[in-house]
Amino acid sequence: MDRQSLIKKFDKQAKKYDKRRQNGHGNQFRQRIFREAKGKVLEVAIGSGLNFPFYNSNVELTGLDFSHEMLQKAQLAANEYPFQTTLIQKDVETVEFSDNSFDTIISSASLCAYQDPIDVLNKFQKWCKPEGKILMLEHGMSTNKFLSGLQKALNPLVFRVVGCHQDRDMNEIVEKSELKLIKVERYLAGYLYLIWAKPC
After folding, report:
1. How far is CA 124 from CA 2, 27, 84, 92, 95, in A?
2. What number does CATH give the domain 3-199?
3. What predicted TM-score, i.e. pTM, was given to this entire model?
């Protein structure tokens, strides 16, 4: 799928994502990991701002997304929170930041959509300060054999409809990257991954 088609798919989903922010979808898991964000924070694929409620008031947030519609929702949401927010419409797979720019890098349900997720994680390695952290909440291959088989079977259809892969092993992707994996927690039959990592 070409990038413009993928961007259009996420533009169309902006209202749905904004409703998730308002109804608390997955909040217990987001709270579990993203409360640790501090300092200069980069959130890639920021969407409509689902993680805003879990950031400390003194962070400096840079939000990145390739979807104009998502960023419009995120800008409105940012007005409700005290921290400084800068939003940038760019594709994380092509954007560049200076090395060692951020104390924390956040990825939330975004590794499923990248053409080369390992390359994106290697960008995190460069952009994150040596003492910083990378916090990720991702969905991927379930530990349940029946569900994982279903994910594999449905993946081509789901990718065409909503633009994200269902059958990626997020542990394996992180381990193949240049990041140092610190801890992984799995929930919802292993479908949901909470991942703590840092630069090597």
Report:
1. 23, 24, 21, 10, 12
2. 3.40.50.150
3. 0.90
